[in-house]
Amino acid sequence: MDDNTKRLPRWWSGGVCSALAVTTTHPLDLVKVQLQTQVQKIPVTELIGNIYRSDGILGFYGGISASWFRQLTYTTTRFALYEHGKQYVDANNASAKVQLATFAGICGGIVGVPGDVVTVRLQNDSKLPPESRRNYKHVFDGLYRIQKEEGIRSLFRGAIPAVTRSVLLTIGTNAAYDQIKQVIKDFRHMEDGLPLHFLTASVAGCIGTLMTQPIDVVKTKYMNAKPGEFKNLGGVIVSVAKQGPLAFYKGFVPALMRVSPNTIITFMLYEQARLRFGYFPQESEDKKKQH
């Protein structure tokens, strides 16, 4: 009988599993974005109350279509490149995994920027006065209107912090997940099952949030800015810094509450998809020989 733990994940698994995960954590992401873009600080409880009074329960799912689109492009690219690349590096070498995660993060970050821009704007729209809202109907309407009204370059606004965050997140989750999982299996002799996946993903989620939060604050503020509000990325960093060092960790609690569960759900679904729908290494070798 085949040992399913030896199965490798399909290229689409990461994006699909992440899209399912983000459906459950989207309200926390929306609150995080609105906290990061506020100028006058208000308590998170008041912010949540404002969202509910303005749009009801559905208000917490503003921009969900853009979040799905982003995961199906950005996360699919990151996971697919990282997993495929592991066939060509030393699986026991942490440095090799970090380098591979960096490459996958750069590619995924570039692919995901347009979806990220629309996601941030849709999530922040309900906070704005009615006359200032962009009122994108959905992700594709947002993509079309941004390139039409602001030019194609605006779809890649904040690309540098977005790609940087993507690299740090891929290192802090994918590479960290693999390394932590390997260490726990070696020293705790845990089987490749749900308890191991949950424990590993929990630690990776915390690491990922700590690494990415400062750049995430800068990225969110820049993507949400109106044309001409900031001359360049340096202007955004200065604007955040003027609010004090802790401003770079604005929205950290909602971010941790979102990234950790999101990472846990994503990786647990991803592992289950691998065990049930993945392929054996021999299948890949046979296909190469056929070609």
What can you see in these coordinates?
The relative contact order is 0.15. Helix 1 (13-37) packs antiparallel against helix 9 (252-277) and helix 3 (64-85) packs antiparallel against helix 4 (94-125). Helices cover 71% and strands 0% of the residues. It has one domain: Mitochondrial carrier domain (Mitochondrial carrier fold, Alpha/alpha barrel). It is built from 10 helices and no strands. The chain has 291 residues and is mainly α.
Q: Share of helix among residues?
A: over 70%
According to CATH, what is the class? Answer: Mainly Alpha
The low-confidence parts are none
In terms of DSSP E residues, the strand content is: under 5%
How many DSSP E strands?
A: 0
**Class computed from helices, strands and strand pairing:** mainly alpha
From the alpha-carbon coordinates, what is the Rg to the nearest angstrom? 20 Å
Q: How many H/I helices? A: 10
Shape: globular
CATH architecture: Alpha/alpha barrel
CATH superfamily: Mitochondrial carrier domain
**Euclidean distance between termini CA atoms:** 28 Å
CATH topology: Mitochondrial carrier fold
Query: Mean pLDDT, nearest integer?
Result: 88
Order of helices and strands: HHHHHHHHHH
- Tell me the domain tally: 1
**Largest β sheet strand count, sense and barrel closure:** none
